[in-house]
Structure formats: C-alpha cells, structure tokens
C-alpha cells in the first residue's frame, strides 16, 4: 500500500494497539491475533503490534495495516521501542506497513542514531516511519529528520514530559499546529469522547490500547472505583 493510500485510510480513524507483555495473561501471538480480529470486527482501521511474530500473524489474519514495533531493553539506554537496527530489521521481515520507534532525544542503545534507523528503512522497504515522541521539540526534530508520521505515545514516559493523568491534549494540539506531517494521538486515551477530542484538536488518527485490549487493567480500575464508593458510602452512614 502506497503512502498516500495508507494515510488516507487512517484519516480520522481508530488504530487499536494489541500488545501484551510476557508477564501478562493475554501474552501470546494466538491471543493477540484474536484480539486484532475482534478490533477489526469493531471497525478498527489498523493495528499496532509488538514483535515479529505478532506483526506478521496479525497482518496475515486481519488484512489490516499494521504498525510494527519491537520492544527490547538494553542496559545502556532507557529507549526500548524499536531501539536499534536489529528491531527495525525484525519489523521489516514481519512485513509491517509502518515501523514505529522511540524518537525522543534520549541516548539510544549502542549509540545508534535515528537517522541511521531511518536510512535502513528507506533503503530496504516502502514502509512508513513513525516517530514516538514526548514533546513538541521531539516532534519537530522527527519531522526534520524525515519521519512520515509523529505519535504522542511517549508523553509522560520521559522525565521531562507532561506527567499528568489523562491524554496529553496540549501536545496533540501543538504538534498538529506545528507539523506538516500527520500526528497520531496515543497515550492514556480511555473513552470514545477523548478519542473524538483528539481528532478535533488536529490528530490524523487515534491509537487506543489499554482501554480496549488490557482487561486486567480495566478490571483493576473498576475494583479501585468500587472501593472508593464503599468508603464514601460508609462515611455517609457514619454521619
């Protein structure tokens, strides 16, 4: 799928992040593929997936465009979303339509640079490159470096970015106003209303993960809310 067709297909639409860490109950390619199929039935226009096996399987089974990442921790850096050429190559081999990577200004593992990773993508595929950023400065730098899209994924996950609860609507708006490339809203978007607001602020598309694909987190939120309601009710009775 060429760049313009893919971007047009994503405009104003929902991308569902289907990921589960190794210590989570839904971890595994078969489960994540089923989750992606469910997302497609619900109307998702693309999937964000982690790992070569998941990216490849989800793309084959759903037929949807897949934003591929590989999360891997290195001892010499805090960057773990597609951090080196090894992870980029795995995404390429899996057939990802878009390769997303940490594009923050932090030191990368092994001293690799973003421009080196971009060059590997350009020289070996027609994939689009997505920059996961945490600030406006990083988004501007990513556009200048040659990325095709910028995502707000890492807002709140760097020590110098916004650390408040809820989506970073200010970053979504500022990036949309400053950049000429599409801005993807991602990060702590928990309701359809928040997703709609992101589009209204200029986002090209919206990624939702936890609120759709992490039931253990959602269950915990309900449990904690009920505990709070119980406390409030007890206080009212005491009075």
Automatic annotation (TrEMBL):
Secretion signal, residue range per the UniProt entry: none
Key words, A-Z: Carbohydrate metabolism, Isomerase
CDD domains named in the record: NanE
Enzyme Commission code: 5.1.3.9
SUPFAM superfamilies listed in its UniProt record: Ribulose-phoshate binding barrel
Pathway: Amino-sugar metabolism; N-acetylneuraminate degradation; D-fructose 6-phosphate from N-acetylneuraminate: step 3/5
Single GO molecular function: N-acylglucosamine-6-phosphate 2-epimerase activity
InterPro entries per the UniProt record, alphabetical: Aldolase_TIM, NanE, RibuloseP-bd_barrel
Catalytic activity: an N-acyl-D-glucosamine 6-phosphate = an N-acyl-D-mannosamine 6-phosphate
A GO CC annotation given for this chain: cytosol
Gene Ontology annotations of biological process type: carbohydrate metabolic process; N-acetylmannosamine catabolic process; N-acetylneuraminate catabolic process
Pfam (any one): NanE
Family: Belongs to the NanE family.
Function: Converts N-acetylmannosamine-6-phosphate (ManNAc-6-P) to N-acetylglucosamine-6-phosphate (GlcNAc-6-P).
NCBIfam families in the cross-refs: PRK01130.1 (NF002231)
Protein name as it appears in the record: Putative N-acetylmannosamine-6-phosphate 2-epimerase
Native organism: Planifilum fulgidum
